[in-house]
Amino acid sequence: xxxxxxxxxxxxxxxxxxxxxxxxxxxxxxxxxxxxxxxxxxxxxxxxxxxxxxxxxxxxxxxxxxxxxxxxxxxxxxxxxxxxxxxxxxxxxxxxxxxxxxxxxxxxxxxxxxxxxxxxxxxxxxxxxxxxxxxxxxxxxxxxxxxxxxxxxxxxxxxxxxxxxxxxxxxxxxxxxxxxxxxxxxxxxxxxxxxxxxxxxxxxxxxxxxxxxxxxxxxxxxxxx
Length: 225
Prior knowledge:
Strand order of the largest sheet: 2-1-5-3-4
Oligomer: single chain
Structural class: alpha+beta
Number of strands: 7
Radius of gyration: 19 Å
Number of helices: 6
CATH topology of the largest domain: Ubiquitin-like (UB roll)
């Protein structure tokens, strides 16, 4: 067993457990987009970032790919973590604003603006479809091509795949292919249709090292009444 400190709580988990798995087991929610049970961790979306270590040496890591270590100290909702997640959400909105999945994530994290150049992509390169096709459907009909800004997804040589069974598994897990928002105006990057407009306690200047990680937030629920 590996002993560590998670949000101030001393816990023990089996060796090889990722931070995301440990946090989920102990009831600390961490948002994810490219992670799905039954598929190998990929760490593409970076939404699951957490802060490990203390002081100047503290760093942000993707919890879905980072294994626990003896004596490590993890914070899943520090001020630094939440700021990083909001920037990542803005970048995702800039790439694929009509994804209802991403819009819902933005609403849950109180993201009210998008400050980056607006695009209207149909793919955010999360890799869910590639892993679903290879690991669950045992086909491997699609994959990534190129690097950097030229990175894309498709079949080899853009030709119809002989191993694709048209199962629809890739579309089932794709956050861009699922139900889409009606947003189509660049100046309104966030529809806010699913937003909880009650100001959450994490917006107050009361917390810095550890922000609110409860879902739903008890303080916000009480405030509603």
